[in-house]
Amino acid sequence: MNKLHFLRAVWSDIILVESNGLYGLIDTGFARAFPRIKDYLDRLGVERLEFILITHFHKDHYGSLPALLQTYPVGTVYMKKFSGLNITDGSGHSASDEFNAREMENCERMCALARYHSRLVVLDGTVGHVRLGEFNFQLFGEPDAIRIMYLDPFSPYYHQIRFGENTNSVVLYANVNGTHIYLGGDACNEPLEYERYSCQNTRYACEINHRIDLLKVPHHCCGNVLSDRFLSILQPRYCVATNFTATVNGQMKANRDLLLAATPETQLLVSDVCGYCFTIGANGDLSFEEFDRLPPITFEEIPPERSDEYWPLHIRYLVEDDIISDPEDIEYFRSNKYRFEILKHMSSTHDRHHLVYMIRDGKRIGAASYSISEDSGECFLYDFWVFKPFRGDGLGHHCYMALESYTQSQGAEYHEINCTGKDRTRFWKALGFVDDGLDEWNVPLLRKNRMEYKTYGGNPFEM
Ligand SMILES: [Fe+2]
Q1: Of 36, 172, 361, 459, which sits with the fewest C-beta atoms within 10 Å of its C-beta?
Q2: Which of 29, 27, 71, 64 is nearest to 47 (CA)?
């Protein structure tokens, strides 16, 4: 029995390979994913991993490695080591020297752990294949492209820190009983002025030169990772993208469109709310089923007579999240004048103001306030926040996508928000919002028009 299990993951990869009772893991997600991985391995009765392969040294790929090594016997750890020249810190900011030095130490620590608990094999270009039962993965990727381009005096990037660790990512390709699989890691497809490492995914596709059945879309379907050439050669039947919002919204939407235009019959699966287990039959037929689906996010409307319970939460959010800091503003949002105004609109029959809790698993995990214009279909979001204990793991994105679908069911045609601050703007833009001028107080406005989600099952956050 041959299977590939893509565990539920957002902005990270966790791929369990199974062949005739043997198991191996390709990437390990963030550190916080460990309980989820362990839970799944327990359910399958996995007690040993033949290998763990880290495609490149980024936290969303190596994060759970230490916990896994301390919990399971692991035959071999295949590790792509850190270059020390990573340009970003993984959260969209440029990496400092301290960051790179810390990651270098981290990498050495992981290697030492791997040597202690297992057998360490550094992916330095000498390893061409990794085998597990009937899987024989061919490895693509350069030993240390980043460092080579940095150190080569003839390189246009000589002594320049220009690349992220993704440029060093390993790609795995296998043909199991005629089922062809391309696991793209975070490999890029940037055209470079350094020919040898230019358009990596396209070059690997040319080498493979065969239609594939399953593509783990490189780099969470974000950035310059695909090309027409790549898709026209590989023509993937199923694609797994490990971030829904990156796949369909914002700057990465182009990848989704490129994929669907080149291969209209492809099924694009996103791993944000559930995992996917692909089974390769004896004659190569491929099928999948989902597992570990998160419970949906639902909404509880707060009626006007209960609005008093909302205000303390609201003011705490405004202050703690630094939405307002001016004492006059704080006074205004605490005032009866403001609250009466909202209450009046909450009771109105036209363009009613809504206060809602967002609920998952029976728990209130966040809140929002909005109104929908019956004339224009504008849904203006006044407030939107996830309660502090629940933040992380993409929950803010999940909540918004659920709210978008909920408000659309109430008549919203497009969404508008006013927004300041780099991180907040980045959050909304990643969800597909675009600049929409300034409001009357010169605060930037962002807008998102209604869009069609052409992934398997549509918007996975829809109720
Ligand atoms: Fe990644």
Answers
A1: 361
A2: 71
For residue 55, with 0-12 CB atoms within 10 Å meaning exposed, 13-18 middle and 19 or more buried, which class applies? Answer: buried
Number of domains into which the chain is organized = 2
Query: What's the 235 CA to ligand 1 centre distance in angstroms?
Result: 23
If asked whether residues 88 and 229 sit together in one domain, one would say yes
- Residue 302 · residue 356 · CB < 8 Å: yes
pLDDT at position 164: 84
User: Which CATH number belongs to the domain containing residue 37 in this structure?
Assistant: 3.60.15.10
Q: Are residues 74 and 208 in the same domain?
A: yes
Residues in the chain: 463
The residue range of the domain holding 45 is: 2-291
Six-digit token string for 367: 């809140």
CA of 364 to the centre of ligand 1 (A): 30
Q: Is the pLDDT of residue 127 over 90?
A: yes
| Residue 200 domain flag | yes
Going from the Cα of 311 to the center of ligand 1, the distance in angstroms, rounded, reads 39
Alpha carbons 330 and 323: distance in angstroms, whole number: 10
Q: Is pLDDT of 251 > 60?
A: no
Centre of ligand 1 to C-alpha 218, Å, is 9
DSSP 256-312: HHHHHHH-TT-EEEE-SS-EEEEEE-TTS-EEEEEE-PPPPPEEEE--GGGGGGHHH
Protein residues within 5 Å, CB atom, of ion ligand 1? 60, 186
| Confidence at residue 263, expressed as pLDDT on a 0 to 100 scale | 87
**Is residue 459 in a domain?**
no
137 and 111 housed in the same domain: yes
Q: Which of 397, 360, 403, 85 is nearest to 220 (CA)?
A: 397
pLDDT on residue 346: 94
Ligand 1 center to 13 CA (angstroms): 7
Which residue, of 237, 256, 291, is where some domain finishes?
A: 291
Answer whether residue 455 is part of any domain. no
Q: What DSSP character marks residue 350?
A: S
223 and 240 part of one domain: yes
Judgement on whether residues 312 and 423 belong to the same structural domain of the protein: yes
Strands of 10-83 (E only): list them.
14-19, 22-28, 49-54, 74-79
